[in-house]
Write a structure and sequence with these properties.
It catalyses: GMP + diphosphate = guanine + 5-phospho-alpha-D-ribose 1-diphosphate; IMP + diphosphate = hypoxanthine + 5-phospho-alpha-D-ribose 1-diphosphate. Its EC number is 2.4.2.8. The protein is of the alpha/beta class and about 180 residues long. Helices cover about 25% and strands about 30% of the residues. Strand 5, helix 3 and strand 6 form a beta-alpha-beta unit. Bound molecules: 1-O-pyrophosphono-5-O-phosphono-alpha-D-ribofuranose, hypoxanthine and magnesium ion.
Length: about 180
């Protein structure tokens, strides 16, 4: 797999540092509260595992599965809710956990869904923020790293459902998806 990577952007150590930094911030910001972490599958599974272990709060964890890329390198602009949560988010302080915010459409979908269901507050902690990719206006509150407008994989992020198990985030060589 390493041969398919143009450049490693963030290795395990820098991702751990980002998790520690954001975990500490969330712990301070939510002191005395019991937030609900909502991890967006599949991409956010590793980030979720690392980030929440850096948070010292009575927090709950739920998973929701949505999809828009269907394995490709571009958003289909259509969000499919694959697996919903069963718990009630009404009056809850929800922290959405994402691996990446790119066009922003997945995040906007999530925010609208939670708002409609009566969440008290909604914040977002993302490992990567690709601001140049935005098609809709939406922002994250806790950001690990800003990335340029290139297709990245690893540490949860996929191309055709592969590369999620790379222990780092890297730029996928163009020839891998243009051939
Ligand atoms: O800001 P956007 O352009 O909407 O892109 C961000 C979303 O796209 C990816 O999910 P994907 O649809 O690939 O599903 P996956 O997590 O199962 O890979 C990623 O995990 C985010 O959830
Ligand atoms: O750059 C990306 N890589 C993998 N998945 C993604 N989903 C949105 N942007 C990306
Ligand atoms: Mg994907």
């Amino acid at each position: 797999m390493d041969n398919d990577i143009e450049e490693v952007l963030y290795d395990q150590a820098s991702i751990q540092q980002a998790a520690q930094r954001l975990g500490k911030q969330i712990t301070e910001d939510y002191a005395g509260e019991r937030p609900l972490f909502l991890s967006v599958l599949k991409g956010a599974y590793l980030w979720t595992a690392d980030l929440i272990r850096e948070v010292d709060l009575y927090a709950e964890l739920e998973f929701i599965k949505i999809s828009s890329y269907h394995g490709g390198v571009a958003s289909t602009d259509e969000i499919t809710l694959v697996t919903d949560i069963r718990s009630d988010v009404q009056n809850r302080d929800v922290i959405i956990l994402e691996d990446i915010v790119d066009t922003g459409q997945s995040l906007l979908f999530m925010k609208e869904l939670l708002a409609k269901r009566g969440a008290r507050s909604i914040k977002v902690a993302t490992l990567l923020d690709k601001k140049e990719g935005r098609k809709v206006e939406v922002t994250a509150d806790y950001i690990g790293f800003d990335v340029r407008n290139q297709f990245v994989v690893g540490y949860g992020l996929d191309y055709k459902d592969f590369y999620r198990n790379l222990p780092y985030v890297g730029i996928l060589k163009k020839e891998v998806y243009t051939k």
